[in-house]
Amino acid sequence: IFHYRGCWGSGGRYSFLGALTDARKALNVLIRRKEVDGENIAVVGHSFGGLVAIHTATKSDNVKAVVALCPVSSLTKHLMSPHRKVILRRGLPFVSGLAMKKALSEWETLSERYDPIDYVDQISPRPFLLIHGDRDDIIPIECSTELLARAQEPKEMTVINGADHIFAGKRGFVIGKAVDWLGSVFQGHQF
């Protein structure tokens, strides 16, 4: 696990666009580590991190599996609506140096260039797992169903009944599902 720059206490200034670069850099560092099997890497992302995980996988042959938890499918369709400022305000307290005006500008750029619905099909033939709560009030469950419909095989989706965006009270189950699924993808490897 890593934190994007300017996020959760990391140095620097947070940027939605910079998160795409940060993830690629983190992947490159991970691949070079001696104790890591660089041939068997999975990326896992939650919420906006789901977008980042999907994007990272499509840009790297080293990624062998993708797990997206409550990912956005299209910023244009789901998050560029009138309530976007409310969504951003709810999610900004943990980032440093990102003004609302810059955040909205970056979201517009992301929606024009990086909507996962436009490239999720490029994950295949690598396995892809979506996990979403049916009571998510931040990213609608339709985002995962749209991504599932557009993705190519192998793909799978798990809906967590009664779960909100952060899987409150259900995190153990979600972690277990992701770990079990990754175990089946990377048979013979320990996690």
Mind explaining what this structure looks like?
- The protein has 191 residues and is α/β, with parallel strands linked by helices.
- The chain has helices at 16-32, 48-59, 75-79, 84-91, 100-113, 142-150, 171-185; strands at residues 41-46, 63-69, 128-133, 155-160.
- A four-stranded parallel β-sheet has the order 1-2-3-4, with helices on both faces.
- Strand 3 (128-133), helix 6 and strand 4 (155-160) form a beta-alpha-beta unit.
- It is globular.
- It starts with 15 loop residues before the first helix and ends in a 6-residue tail after the last helix.
- The relative contact order is 0.15.
- The mean pLDDT is 89.
Helix percentage: 40-55%
Structural class: alpha/beta
Low-confidence stretches: none
Whole-angstrom Rg: 16 Å
Shape: globular
Order of adjacent strands in the largest pleated sheet: 1-2-3-4
Give a quick account of the main beta sheet: strands, pairing sense, barrel closure.
Answer: 4 strands, parallel
- Give the overall average pLDDT: 89
* Count of alpha and pi helical runs: 7
Number of strands: 4
Strand portion: 5-15%
Span from first to last CA? 14 Å
SSE run: HEHEHHHEHEH
Write the topology of this structure.
Layout: H1 16-32, E1 41-46, H2 48-59, E2 63-69, H3 75-79, H4 84-91, H5 100-113, E3 128-133, H6 142-150, E4 155-160, H7 171-185
Helix pairs in contact: 1-2
Features:
alpha/beta; 4-stranded parallel sheet; 191 residues; single chain
Summarize the structure.
This protein has 191 residues and is α/β, with parallel strands linked by helices. The chain has helices at 16-32, 48-59, 75-79, 84-91, 100-113, 142-150, 171-185, and strands spanning 41-46, 63-69, 128-133, 155-160. The two termini are 14 Å apart.
